[in-house]
Each structure stands twice: as C-alpha cells, then as structure tokens.
Design goal:
- By secondary structure, the protein is an alpha/beta fold.
- It is built from 11 helices and 6 strands.
- It has a 6-stranded parallel β-sheet, sandwiched between helices.
- Strand 3, helix 3 and strand 4 form a beta-alpha-beta unit.
- The longest helix has 15 residues.
- The chain is globular and about 50 Å long.
Length: 213
C-alpha cells in the first residue's frame, strides 16, 4: 500500500517512516507537517492511506480530512495521535475516518493499516471504549428504542458481527449468508441508523445494544 504520513514532529515522522517503510507491503511515498500538506500530498500521490496527526502547529488534521472526504468519501484516513479527546473522536467518526489510533503501541500501526486496506475500520481499545459510552455521539438523532426497533432481527445479527470485528467474509460465513447479502444488510443498517461506516456500527452497538440481546 502507498502511505502518506503527516505529523508536525519531525522525530515522529522519521520514526514512523523507518518502521512502516520496512514493511514489505507498505511504501511511504511522502511526509507532511500539517493539514495543508495532507491535502496537497493526498492529491499529488493518491495514497492508499493517509496517516495523520490530529493537532499540529499548522492546519489541523481533522479539518484537512474533512476537506478530503468531502471530495472523495472513499479516501482512507487514519488518525494517529496522543489526543483521545471525546470531541476529536466523535468528529473523526462522523466524517468517515477509517481509524483513530493512539501513539502508544507502534507495533500495532502496520496491522491496523492492513485492516483498513481489507475494508475494516480500526479504533484503538481505549478510543473504542470512550467512543462507545460518551454522551450524545453517533446516530444520536434517534432514541435507543426507536433505533433498535428499526432493525430486523437479521440486521441486528449483522450489527453484532460487525461489532465483534469480523470482516465481511467471516461475518457472512458465521451468519450463513453470501457476502453480497451481508453487504446489503450493512447498507440497510447504515441507512436506517444514519451512520457512515462499520466503525460507527460498532460504536452504536456498544453504546446501545450490548446486553440487550
């Protein structure tokens, strides 16, 4: 995969570049230091994934990602940051970011990027826990009961499978359906709940459905 790294700390940029470029399946094609660089480098290099910090000394990563995702909703943006503020997490999920990771376990970054390339969305454990229980949040325009009642039993099974981290092939196999049928169910769930991606489905499940059966 082609990767662009954007971070305002040159030591972090260099370290990430060395670690990730050493992976056989990852090629770091460019480095940037702020949100303006992120937009420019994404347009110049068309990377498979943009790995960006959130808060930087220049333009922040969130506003840059919002601009990119407005023009290309399929763009793969993963945030790597020391900031797990609720406001940032909600904003990242609502805009359709594919991941939100905390700068703690560097060894987990490459596997997370591979998961994104495989069509999954990735949240570091602490971030998922906080996102799952924060007030307001994703899909908040519906009450819990009305949101749940809008889903069929089969759609609820799909929601549980997605929340457990299964990819499409694994979920389809577990639920004894084709991948095409599974994708149709996911599309229906997203439409009914006003969500944008699989990560938001997982957050919805942990906030509203876990423990209800």
């Amino acid at each position: 995969m082609k990767l662009v790294i954007v971070d305002d700390d040159p030591i972090v940029r260099e370290s990430l570049g060395i670690i990730l470029d050493a992976q056989a399946d990852i090629e770091v094609v460019a480095f940037g230091s702020d949100g303006d660089d992120a937009v420019r480098l994404f347009e110049e290099h068309a990377p498979d994934v943009l790995l960006s910090d959130v808060r930087m000394s220049g333009r922040d990563g969130l506003s840059a990602a919002e601009e990119l995702l407005r023009h290309d909703p399929e763009a793969r943006v993963v945030f790597l940051t020391t900031f797990s503020d609720d406001e940032y997490i909600v904003r990242a999920l609502k805009m359709g970011a594919r991941g939100y990771l905390i700068k703690q376990d560097v060894a987990s970054i490459a596997p997370a990027l591979r998961a994104v390339m495989a069509g999954q969305n990735v949240l570091e454990g602490e971030v998922l826990e906080r996102a799952a229980f924060m007030a307001g949040g994703i899909g908040g325009s519906r009450t819990d009961e009305s949101a749940l009642s809008s889903l069929t039993e089969r759609e609820r099974e799909v929601v549980r499978a997605v929340a457990e981290g299964l990819d499409n092939a694994e979920a389809a196999d577990m639920l004894c359906m084709s991948e095409g049928t599974l994708r149709n169910h996911i599309s229906s769930v997203l439409a009914k709940l006003g969500l944008r991606n699989r990560t938001q489905i997982a957050v919805f499940y942990y906030r509203r459905c876990a423990g209800r059966g």
